[in-house]
C-alpha cells in the first residue's frame, strides 16, 4: 500500500489575543471562513469536514511559540455549542499542544471575545439581532470539557472586562481527579508525595483539571519551578497535573506561584487559584473568601460551604491580527 502524503493545509487564521491577570491566550474561531493564503494545488481552507484534516495540536504549538509564533500560554478554540442554553463552546490547548479540560483565566478571555465580537459586528452592520442579544446578556454560559460554566459580567469597557466565573464544585475524590496512589483516602490532604529529593506533603484536588498544592513558608529561597516540573510528571498523576505553591499571608489572603501542565511557569492561573483556595480551606488555613496574589495581580476566589467555587478577575484585549499557518512549514 502506498503511503499518502498528508494534505497540505495553508491557512490565514484571524486571531485575538487577551491576557487575564498575566495569563495570555490566543482566541480563534476555527469554524469561521478561513481562506488559504497559499493558492498552490492542494492548499486547503478550513471548512466543514476539512476540519478533521487539521492537526489543532500543531496549530497550538506553532501559534503559541513566543519566538516563531504569536506567543501565548494557550490557544482557545471558540465555536457554536450544540447546547441551546450556551452562547459558545470552548476548547483549551496548552502551549505544548496538549488538550486541557478547563482554564479559569481562559474562559474569561473566551467570554471577552464573544462580547467584543458582538460589539464589532454591531459597529459594522446596521442591524444584527444576534449581536444585540449577546451584548445585553449579564450572564454568559460556555460549554467546556469540564462542563457548562456560567460567567457574570461584572464590568465591561472597551477592550477590558471583569467576569465572575462559577467554576463548579471542586472534585475531591482521588479516582476522579485522577490520582492513583494506592490506599489513599479522599479528600487527599497532606499526602506524602515521594519525589527525587524526598517527601513533599501535598493536597490534591481538581477544578475539572488536576491540581497539586504545596504549602511553603516562603516563595523565594527555593527552586519551586524545578519541583513543579517533577510533580507535574509524577506517575501518581495519570493525566499529569498543575502545581501551585502557596504562602498563606492571612485568613483572607494568599500568595501563589504556578507551574501549569504543558506550559511551565505562568504569571497566574484561574483554576490554580481556585485549587489553592480549596486546599487552604481543606487544611484549615484560610476563610472561604480569599484574595489570591499572583505575579500579575489579584484574583478573588470564594468557596461558600456546600456551593460552587467562584473566580473573579479581569481580562484585557492585547491584539488582533492574522496568523499564517502551514503544516508543511519547517520548524
Which parts are unreliable, with pLDDT below 50 for 5 consecutive residues or more? Answer: 33-51
Integer average pLDDT: 90
Helix content: 10-25%
Tell the overall outline.
Answer: globular
CATH topology group of the largest domain: Diaminopimelate Epimerase, Chain A, domain 1
Q: Regarding CATH, which class of the largest domain?
A: Alpha Beta
Largest sheet: 8 strands, mixed, barrel
Structural class: alpha+beta
Tell me the number of structural domains: 2
SSE string, helix = H, strand = E?
EEHEEEHHEEEEEEHEEEHEEE
CATH architecture of the largest domain: Roll
Walkthrough of the structure:
The chain has 331 residues and is α+β, with helices and mostly antiparallel strands. It folds into 2 domains: 10-168 and 316-324, Diaminopimelate Epimerase, Chain A, domain 1; 174-307, Diaminopimelate Epimerase, Chain A, domain 1 (Roll). 18% of the residues lie in helices and 40% in strands. The chain contains 5 helices and 17 strands. The chain has helices at residues 56-64, 104-124, 129-136, 224-232, 270-282; strands at residues 10-20, 23-28, 74-79, 88-94, 99-100, 139-144, 147-157, 160-168, 188-195, 198-206, 210-215, 242-250, 253-260, 264-266, 289-294, 297-302, 309-326. It has an 8-stranded mixed barrel. The longest helix has 21 residues, at 104-124. It is globular and about 60 Å long. Residues 33-51 have low confidence and may be disordered.
Amino acid at each position: 500500500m502506498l503511503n499518502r502524503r498528508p494534505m497540505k493545509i495553508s491557512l490565514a487564521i484571524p486571531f485575538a489575543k487577551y491576557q487575564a491577570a498575566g495569563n495570555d491566550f490566543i482566541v480563534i474561531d476555527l469554524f469561521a471562513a478561513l481562506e488559504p493564503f497559499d493558492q498552490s494545488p492542494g492548499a486547503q481552507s478550513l471548512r466543514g469536514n476539512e476540519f478533521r484534516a487539521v492537526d489543532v495540536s500543531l496549530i497550538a504549538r506553532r501559534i503559541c511559540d513566543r519566538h516563531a509564533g504569536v506567543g501565548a500560554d494557550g490557544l482557545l478554540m471558540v465555536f457554536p455549542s450544540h447546547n441551546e442554553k450556551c452562547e459558545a463552546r470552548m476548547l483549551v490547548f496548552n502551549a505544548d499542544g496538549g488538550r486541557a479540560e478547563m482554564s479559569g483565566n481562559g474562559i474569561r478571555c473566551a467570554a471577552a471575545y464573544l462580547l467584543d465580537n458582538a460589539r464589532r459586528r454591531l459597529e459594522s452592520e446596521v442591524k444584527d439581532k444576534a449581536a444585540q442579544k449577546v451584548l445585553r446578556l449579564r450572564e454568559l454560559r460556555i460549554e467546556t470539557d469540564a462542563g457548562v460554566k456560567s460567567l457574570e459580567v461584572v464590568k465591561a469597557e472597551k477592550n477590558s472586562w471583569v467576569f465572575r466565573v462559577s467554576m463548579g464544585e471542586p472534585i475531591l475524590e482521588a479516582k476522579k481527579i485522577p490520582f492513583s496512589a494506592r490506599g489513599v483516602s479522599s479528600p487527599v490532604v497532606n499526602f506524602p508525595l515521594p519525589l527525587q529529593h524526598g517527601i513533599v506533603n501535598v493536597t490534591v484536588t481538581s477544578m475539572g483539571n488536576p491540581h497539586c498544592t504545596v504549602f511553603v513558608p516562603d516563595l523565594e529561597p527555593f527552586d519551586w519551578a524545578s519541583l513543579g516540573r517533577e510533580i507535574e510528571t509524577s506517575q501518581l498523576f495519570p493525566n499529569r497535573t498543575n502545581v501551585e505553591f502557596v504562602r498563606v499571608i492571612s485568613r483572607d489572603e494568599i500568595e501563589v506561584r504556578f507551574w501549569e501542565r504543558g506550559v511551565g511557569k505562568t504569571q497566574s492561573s484561574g483554576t490554580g487559584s481556585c485549587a489553592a483556595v480549596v486546599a487552604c480551606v481543606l487544611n484549615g488555613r484560610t476563610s472561604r473568601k480569599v484574595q489570591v496574589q499572583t505575579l500579575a495581580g489579584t484574583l478573588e476566589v470564594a468557596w461558600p460551604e456546600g456551593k460552587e467555587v467562584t473566580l473573579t478577575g479581569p481580562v484585557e484585549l492585547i491584539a488582533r491580527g492574522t496568523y499564517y499557518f502551514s503544516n508543511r512549514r519547517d520548524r
